[in-house]
Write a structure and sequence with these properties.
- The complex is a heterodimer of chains A (434) and B (482).
- Chain A is of the alpha/beta class.
- Chain A is built from 11 helices and 20 strands.
- By secondary structure, chain B is an alpha/beta fold.
- Chain B has helices at residues 2-12, 35-44, 49-63, 104-113, 117-124, 142-148, 155-161, 163-169, 180-188, 429-436, 442-458, 463-477, and strands at 26-28, 87-89, 127-132, 135-139, 151-154, 191-197, 207-212, 222-228, 233-241, 249-251, 254-259, 264-272, 284-294, 300-307, 312-315, 318-321, 327-336, 341-344, 347-350, 356-366, 370-379, 387-397, 402-411, 417-426.
- The chains are: A alpha/beta (434), B alpha/beta (482).
- At the A-B interface, strand 19 and strand 20 of A face strand 22, strand 23 and strand 24 of B.
Chain lengths: 434, 482
């Protein structure tokens, strides 16, 4: 057994048992049985976890709200007028007593729910299927100490910001946080999850989010990974959508040494619509691996998957998307578009747009391209006196625009745009073009 | 609609036309596989020591390997000890020197198949190296080819007459460790075809081999090696039919193509092996490794395949594009009906500068069948200016079939351009309606639409095969919409 596995097992044993102990033990048993995924597993063939497996991890310490927490502010804070809900080193920080309630929004800490009503919580924690892709979610089930339960009961205008903050707590700490989002029929909301780590935090962040959409409700969900260069983000997002519900999902990878973002969406009612968008930026030596699976389990559902990947330096970006149309899901429409931009001879982009179709009355298509910036467009800009670096930045910015334009929260969009531009040369010039 | 679906049933229910067994005495080894069997095969074929050593090395490696499980096909475990690994038809003389000396029953078999050897050869100008089970029994047009300097013979003959070519090239494209089925083939391959086209020679005719599996419980392990030297070009056709059987038959062939500077190889296949009956009983397991290597500058390898048969197809004809400016092409139509399962596609490995590849794959699923396209496009760091275009489309007929698309694109050079597009749909109601209201019958309309769907591939087939391929498609699918 690798050091990491041993340390995970030891972490669970060392904790005082809570009222979810049986579920935790069972999840850990299954996780240890399966072990960490390796490149022999189909969805992990491009991401090697050997370095990670050799480390002994310790639980990140609880850090009370204070100067350290306040200093690590989210650059997405402006996207919401309300104060963000913070999860610091895996512990929900809801302030003293109950958090300030907003009409239509209920926020609870999972730890307090586990103490008050474990049965209720157990019903909500998604049963992890024993598939290759979900081993980290199993580990999260075993080890999450806290997290957020968010319920939306009515249309909510103002985006809800959840900040996952990792603070230094010694070498090789591991954080396991969980977010559960539920909507009432007809409710709408925008939820932004921002994963950040302050400098010096060598953290393995293994987070899991589940979204349960009731009939005719709609959620726009963002997850933004922006940890420092020593952080590993592993995130499992599961979405289940009832009849007529709509989910717009944005996955943005901007930081961290290794980012692995899973998305599993199940369209479980007729007329459900799911649009997922990914912006995967692999600058420096970052490794970004995104696996998005949409299961059409009901007829007349539609889905789109759009991804834009950039790799420079020795970065590597992997985009796996898969649309599964179950037997009987007649009238399915789905479209996948994956584009990759390779900016350096040592970078790599791997794309796998997959279709698995078990019904005949479907319209499914995908397109994927990988290449450099279009030399014709480059020439156009150069011939108009724009220097090469600026021209390149402009074209990169335009390349990312396909995903950015889909964002309906202007504040979130502008914050994300700013963060993207900051990484490009001639950032100031680009701002003028917006 | 119900009368239409009855018609469809009738068409789909057509018995396999080529299903019959010729009663020829077979000289077979008992079922089972160990080193002595490998040695026995080698001994019977009077092979030189280097080949025996090579087979044994492959066999030893095979024993350490596990059968691959990643393909999206399902079948009962194969008992490799229950298969006879050698079967040679017995002929009156050791080696027939002309068609007259060939076993008349064998010739009759070809008659039934609609391939009169001499007639076809004379009319079509095609040299046919007919492989019946495992040993070549008739080879024609040798003189004409010999005059051009082209070596076209059975693999065993090549081992006897040109051992230096075999020793130098065998296993250099598909090494024995490559995969489970290739290793098995390397250990026990019985015969196959060998082609060598010398520098600057354009092969004067299309080369063709008909494979036919005959003896019961006999795995077929063909080995084909084609070498096109500098500036040479050759077009090779391969077509297959097999008699009806209830037991599954294993076929694990290996095809290696080598193209040197400015050489061109075109390899076309029409595969129509027994697909099993309408309940999914029987049929051929077709686990084939086909790979071509463009070793020289400006070399070109083109694969065209029409896959309508076999219960299970596991086949990825690939191109390794090493030479600068070399070109790889893959055109495929795969049809799966009833309980057929096909997992097929290609691999294009771009190593050299300015290498180009094109992939056009059309999959048609009907009945309970599963049709999977699985293709890899890999651009290595040295492949500046490499280009790939991939198009794979699937057509679904009936609500119980499945069509999957699993492309893999791995790009490690910023100067490369890789494009992939795919679509999946059923036959459009509007297209059908258009044809019907112009008085075209439903079956003809579907036939037309399917032909149109596959046109991009059929136009790549040599003329002789294009006709056969169209016929095959209509037999398999005509009117399969309901």
């Amino acid at each position: 057994m690798s050091s990491a596995l041993q340390s995970f097992e030891a972490a669970l044993r060392a904790r005082p048992p809570d009222r979810l102990a049986a579920m935790r033990a069972e999840s850990m048993r299954r996780f240890l049985e399966l072990g960490l995924p390796n490149t022999g597993d189909e969805t992990w063939r491009y991401t090697n976890l050997r370095g990670l497996a050799a480390k002994p991890y310790v639980d990140a310490p609880r850090i009370a709200a204070g100067a350290a927490v306040d200093a690590a502010a989210s650059w997405l804070a402006a996207a919401s007028t309300a104060a963000p809900v913070r999860i610091v080193n895996g512990f929900a920080e809801l302030g003293d007593g109950a958090p300030p309630e907003r009409p239509g929004v209920t926020v609870r800490s999972l730890r307090s729910l586990a103490a008050q009503d474990p049965e209720w919580l157990l019903e909500r924690i998604a049963p992890a299927a024993d598939t290759d892709e979900e081993r980290w979610a199993l580990l999260n089930r075993a080890l999450f100490v806290d997290g957020i339960y968010l319920r939306i009961d009515s249309p909510v205008e103002d985006p809800i910001l959840i900040v996952h903050l990792a603070l230094p707590g010694g070498a090789d700490t591991a954080v396991h946080s969980r977010v559960i989002i539920e909507t009432a029929p007809g409710a709408t909301a925008t939820v932004i999850e921002h994963h950040i780590g302050s400098n010096g935090a060598a953290v393995l962040a293994n987070s899991a989010t589940q979204i349960e959409l009731a009939a005719d409700s709609s959620v726009e969900h963002y997850r933004v990974f922006a940890g420092n260069d020593t952080m590993t983000h592993i995130d499992a997002l599961t979405v289940r959508q009832a009849r007529g519900s709509r989910c717009r999902q944005f996955t943005i990878a901007l930081g961290g040494a290794l980012v692995r973002a899973d998305l599993r969406a199940k369209l479980d009612g007729p007329g459900a619509a799911h649009d997922s968008h990914s912006l995967l930026v692999g600058h420096g030596s970052r490794h970004v691996d995104c696996v998005a699976t949409v299961l059409h389990a009901s007829p007349q559902a539609t889905s789109t998957q759009t991804s834009r990947a950039i790799a420079s330096g020795t970065g590597r970006v992997v985009f796996n998307s898969k649309v599964v149309v179950a037997a009987g899901a007649a009238g399915t429409q789905s479209n996948q578009s994956a584009r990759g931009l390779l900016l350096s001879p040592t970078a790599e982009i791997d794309t796998r747009p997959q279709l698995e179709i078990h019904a005949d009355d479907v319209k499914c298509a995908h397109g994927a391209t990988t290449g450099r910036l279009d030399p014709d467009m480059m020439f156009y800009l150069l011939s108009r006196g724009i220097d090469r670096a600026a021209a390149q930045s402009l074209l990169i910015y335009a390349f990312l625009d396909d995903v950015l334009t889909g964002m309906s929260s202007p504040a979130a969009r502008s914050a994300i745009e700013n963060a993207l531009i900051a990484e490009l040369p001639d950032a100031d010039l680009l701002r003028e073009f917006r | 609609m119900s009368s239409k679906s009855q018609e469809i049933e009738a068409v789909l229910g057509q018995k396999y036309r080529h299903g019959f067994v010729t009663d020829i005495e077979s000289d077979s080894l008992p079922p089972g596989l160990d080193e002595s069997v490998v040695a026995a095969i080698s001994r019977r074929k009077q092979e030189p020591q280097f080949l025996l050593d090579w087979r044994l090395k492959a066999f030893r490696h095979w024993r350490t390997m596990r059968e691959p499980a990643w393909a999206s096909v399902r079948y009962k475990p194969i008992d490799y000890q229950d298969i006879s690994y050698y079967s040679a038809p017995r002929a009156p003389t050791d080696a027939p020197k002309s068609l007259d000396e060939v076993d008349p029953k064998l010739l009759a078999t070809y008659e039934k198949l609609g391939i009169p050897l001499h007639e076809r050869a004379r009319l079509a100008g095609v040299a046919v190296d007919a492989v019946f089970d495992s040993v070549s029994v008739a080879t024609t047009f040798k003189d004409k080819l010999a005059k051009a300097g082209v070596i076209f013979c059975s693999f065993s003959e090549a081992v006897r007459n040109h051992p230096e070519l075999i020793e130098r090239h065998l296993g250099t494209v598909v090494p024995i460790q490559d995969n489970f089925f290739a290793a098995l083939n390397s250990a026990v391959f019985s015969d196959g075809s060998f082609v060598y086209v010398p520098p600057g020679v354009r092969c004067p005719m299309e080369l063709s081999t008909y494979f036919r599996i005959n003896a019961a419980k006999t795995g077929q392990f063909e080995r084909t090696l084609i070498i096109a030297a500098e500036g040479a070009s050759v077009s090779y056709l391969e077509g297959c039919t097999a008699p009806m059987r209830d037991e599954n038959q294993l076929h694990a062939a290996v095809v290696e193509l080598i193209a040197l500077d400015d050489a061109q190889i075109k390899y076309s296949t029409v595969q129509n092996w027994y697909p099993g009956d309408e309940n999914g009983v029987g049929g051929i397991y077709n686990f084939v490794t086909k790979r071509g290597e463009c070793r020289g500058r400006n070399a070109k390898i083109s694969w065209t395949q029409v896959e309508t048969g076999s219960a299970i197809t596991w086949k990825y004809p690939s191109c390794v594009l090493k030479g600068e400016n070399s070109v790889g092409e893959f055109y495929s139509v795969a049809v799966a009906n009833n309980f057929q399962q096909a997992d097929t596609g290609t691999k294009m490995i771009h190593i050299g500068r300015n290498t180009k590849s094109t992939i056009v794959a059309k999959g048609i699923s009907a009945g309970h069948a599963t049709n999977t396209y699985r293709g890899l496009v890999k651009i290595l760091p040295g492949a500046d200016g490499a280009r790939n275009f991939t198009q794979c489309d699937s057509l679904l007929m009936g609500s119980r079939c499945a069509a999957h698309t699993f492309p893999y694109m791995e790009v490690r050079n910023p100067g490369a351009t890789v494009e992939h597009e795919a679509s999946t749909s059923k036959i459009g109601e509007d297209q059908l309606f258009y044809c019907l209201q112009r008085g075209v019958s439903a079956e003809d309309a579907v036939n037309m639409i399917v032909s149109g769907f596959c046109k991009a591939v059929f136009k790549e087939l040599p003329m002789e095969f294009a006709v056969e391929a169209q016929n095959l498609l209509s037999v398999s699918l005509e009117g399969a919409v309901g």
